[in-house]
Design brief:
With about 55 residues, the chain is mainly alpha-helical. The chain has helices at about 1-25, 35-50. The mean pLDDT is about 85.
Length: about 55
């Protein structure tokens, strides 16, 4: 009986992790690549600017 109890502990932990993962992922909003592409465009513009010679 004690062996079954020790086997139930990881089983319950796996079930709990699955439930928590599905709950934590439910509120994640689908987001496109817009912000990342905008940031990359700003980076590219900044790198293309001529550097001032010192």
């Amino acid at each position: 009986m004690g062996a079954l109890l020790w086997l139930l502990i990881p089983l319950m932990a796996a079930i709990g992790a699955g439930l928590w993962g599905s709950w934590a992922n439910r509120t994640r909003k689908v987001r496109g690549d817009g912000p990342e592409l905008d940031g990359y465009a700003r980076f590219r513009e900044a790198m293309e600017k001529p550097h001032s010679g010192t």
